[in-house]
Amino acid sequence: MVMKAYEYEIPCIYLYHSSALEDTSRFDEILWGIEEEGIPYDVKSLECNNSEELSHLGAVKSKLAVGIGVDSEGKVTLAFNKLSKDQPLFTAHLDNDPNILRDLGANAGRLVKGIAFK
Questions:
Q1: What are residue 68's DSSP bridge partners?
Q2: Cα 26 to Cα 88: distance, rounded to the nearest angstrom
Q3: Quick one: pLDDT band at residue 6, thresholds 50, 70, 90?
Q4: I want to staple 77 with a disulfide (CB 3.0 to 4.6 A). Which of 1, 33, 43, 88 is the partner?
């Protein structure tokens, strides 16, 4: 079962990506990692092209306090709303090994659950 927030204001992890990112399927592994942990997510495109800014915005908006940002160059940032914008928890790149991207998504879910990271 795919858990997506879409139109509902349910607690979820927000993944914000730059509107300049052409191939959004490149971050599917991240979403699958979040799904593995059973946490809902919502994906939105924004005009911003800074992964730290995007992830921080997502973390601040999320009732779960976790956000992921992806810029047009493929930089991925995982943020927690208790940390400053310039101190993300994890960073990766869309060109990394798919397992790294999946682990980043799973770690976003694990942060919500309060369990150890992969």
A1: 15, 78
A2: 21
A3: low
A4: 88
Q: Which two tokens stand for residue 30?
A: 């991240």
Q: Which of 103, 118, 79 is nearest to 29 (CA)?
A: 103
Q: Is the distance from CB of 21 to CB of 47 less than 8 angstroms?
A: no
Q: What's the token pair of residue 104?
A: 């980043």
CA distances from 34 to 3, 10, 14, 44, 113 (A): 9, 15, 11, 16, 11
Rg (CA), the chain: 12
pLDDT per residue over 57-97, tens digit each? 999 999 999 999 999 999 999 999 999 999 999 999 999 99
Show the CA angle centred on residue 86, arms to residues 80 and 83, nearest 5°: 30
Which tens digits make up the pLDDT trace of 36-65? 999 999 999 999 999 999 999 999 999 999
* Dist CA 51 CA 68 (whole Å): 8
